[in-house]
# Entry
Amino acid sequence: ALRNADYDQAVTHLKRATDLHPNYEDALAGLGAAYRRMGDKERDAQHDAKAREYYEQSRDYYKQAQLADPSSSYALGNVASLSWFLGEKNAANGYFTLAEAVAKVRIMNAGRSPEIYWDYYDLALAQLVTGTVTKDEATKDEAIKTYHTAIQLTPGAVQLNSVLNNLYLLQKARDGIDRLGKVISLLEAAKAK
# Structure
């Protein structure tokens, strides 16, 4: 696990990169990821106010990354998940709806891209949330099918852990997401193989 000093150093370098190139999507997303991990560490240590502050910073950087690359469902999915966790259900639902559309377009256009599984995970989570909000069982069924596709395309445990970290955060949100426990079990079982 990284120490706080490692995160601070990463943040410093990434901020320097965005100073030089303000719309550098990878650096903006990297800042989002760094602040998110810092938030996770604070949450694990039960420092909820500090964790919330980091999650809000993370979301802001992911929003900037999404503006820099509107075709990225990665940034949108993170904005949506963090908004949901922070209790902003309506905003989150809007972001998930956008993430679903962007992921579908990316899947249609990607052909046999080796990293297409990320788009399937973004699509699946968006479907799961949409099904929860609209109380639509068929949409939730579709989400589970999409998760199965994503898992089949996933190369290994590192990627599964990344997806699971997001789902564990959402599990702690005030508003529950239907079938989230089932999805987590599917991913944990895939990781154990």
